[in-house]
């Protein structure tokens, strides 16, 4: 290993010397005949100077070739791509680089497979799924594991309405209206939230679990096209880009606060996060200190501190 490093070091020094000599040659060539060549035979002295520089370049070139030949090749050598190696012999200018690009694509694909295998190992642990695996270990080394099925979606509607009523009383500037789109289904519930005169949101519940969130401007409606009573439109996006971005962030917050063991706390935390948009158009970004960035107010709220950030400024 030390021999390879010494040879590589010598080769780098030789290349550096060659570059220096070539730089001196072009510098002298650009300056032409100078006063330091004297008055007599100035052109002859200038030509002799260029000849010396060319000889020095040739000497350093031979040294580079010798040092490079002493560097051992890697054990794998070049990547064998079969008959595609003949692509490097193309005479057309736009096809000469095809082989090197193909080699780069193979390397990129191998790296993609490696990263995918690592990602699969993490996803196999179920850390990204909206489910909760609780294992109870009995005594002994060969303990059996038992999975507890989450039951937050089987919570009665009355319990959900109790939590919603408590949240509605907590925030005076947030009004909530409860809708039951399917009276026969005792676990489905929709809540329309009006936050001041800033925005309106529809939150769909299955038991105590939030399934879907849609946010629109205060002057936009959530009524369905067929006008059925007790049903709200959960799919039509807002006309304004600001509230479409808040919808994306709200669904991210819904997944962040999800907790199968403490579903009421998850709902309270999400409502607190949503209530932080009461000053949407007056808050300044925590990072850049501006109200607007790319004609957008701070549409991101930190999940822990509720601080306002622009999309490009969020941590």
UniProtKB/TrEMBL annotation:
Domain of life the protein comes from: Eukaryota
GO cellular component, as recorded: mediator complex
Keyword Transcription among UniProt keywords: yes
GO terms classed as biological process: regulation of transcription by RNA polymerase II
Compartments in which it is found: Nucleus
GO MF term set: transcription coactivator activity
Keyword Transmembrane helix belongs to the record: no
Annotated family: Belongs to the Mediator complex subunit 27 family.
Name of the molecule in the record: Mediator of RNA polymerase II transcription subunit 27
């Amino acid at each position: 290993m030390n021999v390879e490093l010494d040879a590589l070091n010598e080769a780098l020094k030789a290349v550096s010397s060659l570059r220096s000599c070539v730089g001196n040659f072009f510098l002298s060539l650009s300056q032409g005949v100078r006063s330091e060549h004297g008055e007599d035979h100035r052109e002859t002295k200038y030509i002799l100077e260029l000849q010396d520089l060319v000889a020095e370049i040739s000497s350093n070139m031979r040294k580079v070739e010798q040092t490079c030949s002493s560097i051992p090749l890697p054990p794998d050598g070049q990547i064998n791509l079969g008959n595609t190696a003949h692509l490097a012999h193309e005479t057309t200018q736009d096809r000469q680089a095809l082989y090197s690009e193909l080699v780069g694509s193979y390397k990129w694909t191998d790296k993609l497979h490696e990263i995918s295998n690592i990602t699969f190992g993490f996803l196999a642990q179920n850390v990204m799924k909206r489910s909760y695996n609780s294992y109870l270990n009995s005594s002994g080394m060969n303990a059996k594991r038992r999975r507890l099925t989450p039951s937050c979606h089987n919570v009665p509607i009355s319990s959900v309405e109790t939590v919603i009523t408590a949240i509605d009383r907590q925030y005076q500037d947030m009004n909530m209206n409860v809708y039951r789109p399917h009276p026969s289904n005792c676990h489905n519930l929709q809540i329309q939230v009006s936050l001041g005169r800033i925005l309106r949101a529809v939150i769909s519940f299955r038991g105590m679990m939030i399934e879907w969130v849609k946010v629109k401007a205060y002057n936009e409606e959530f009524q369905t096209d067929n006008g059925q009573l007790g049903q709200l439109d959960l799919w039509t996006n807002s006309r304004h880009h600001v509230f479409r971005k808040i919808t994306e962030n709200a669904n991210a917050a819904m997944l962040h606060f999800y907790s199968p063991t403490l579903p009421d706390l998850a709902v309270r935390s999400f409502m607190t996060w949503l209530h932080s948009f009461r000053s949407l158009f007056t808050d300044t970004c925590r990072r850049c200190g501006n109200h607007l960035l790319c004609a957008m107010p701070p549409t991101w709220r930190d999940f822990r501190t509720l601080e306002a950030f622009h999309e490009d400024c969020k941590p």
